[in-house]
Amino acid sequence: MTELFGDDLLARPRREVAPGAVHVPGWLTLEQQAWIVERFREWAAGPVPARAARIGGHPMSVRTVCLGWHWQPYRYTREATDVNGARVLPLPEWLVRLGRKAVAEAYDGAAAAGYVPDAALANHYGTIGDGTMAKMGMHQDKDEISREPVVSLSIGDTCLFRFGNTETRTRPYTDVELRSGDLFVFGGPSRLAYHGVPKVFPGTAPEGCGLEGRGRINITLRATGLDAPEAGEDAP
Ligand SMILES: O=C(O)CCC(=O)C(=O)O
Ligand SMILES: [Fe+2]
């Protein structure tokens, strides 16, 4: 009941975690979250199924499905050459608009006006083989040529999100709890900051978010800075 009226947000004010890195708790409504979870299910069904990307021969514990451009360590391609060779789905217009609204919310309208993300990475953190939850090690998002901000949306179980600095994987960093519906935007001086997800807390998804008992979804929107093909032209 208290969550129904957003009372939890009193204790979780929006916060600039580092210069250019803004956490906006409770940005998506439960209805929006549940709708996005349904879309995620559609994306994960193909043409390129959600898969664990391999880094240095080892599969990541999260499963990822990409839109617009397919990400594989450490590049973007239109076809998922490390999965089944199929072309990824286009980035839907509603996600582009949502990304722009997110940047307006985190920064201002001027920053948002020119923001045109062209790729989304949708990660699912589920239970892995040993019964624990998937996680993600400290890394930089640096396979994009553009340095436009990254927009991150979280749905489902709460996680511990570690947001660090641009120099090292280690301290100083700030630990932030990302809950279902939270927005996190990092750009400007924080665009290349190391970050990761050391822990997901199972069973913490709010009722009605569409993912109860099934882990966590995180969607990041990015501007790759790669060439947009002309309409009808084959992508490189
Ligand atoms: O799951 C998250 O909150 C972060 C995901 C992330 O860092 C990434 O996909 O590069
Ligand atoms: Fe990342």
UniProtKB/TrEMBL annotation:
Gene Ontology molecular function, alphabetical: dioxygenase activity
Named cofactor requirement(s): Fe(2+)
Keyword flag Metal-binding: yes
User: Pfam families in the record, alphabetically?
Assistant: 2OG-FeII_Oxy_2
This protein's source sits in the domain of life called Bacteria
Specify whether Oxidoreductase is a keyword of the entry: yes
Query: What keywords were assigned to this record?
Result: Dioxygenase, Iron, Metal-binding, Oxidoreductase
Q: Which residues form the Fe2OG dioxygenase domain?
A: 116-225
Please report the name of this protein according to its UniProt entry.
Answer: Alpha-ketoglutarate-dependent dioxygenase AlkB
Task: Please report the organism this UniProt entry assigns to the protein.
Answer: Arthrobacter ginkgonis
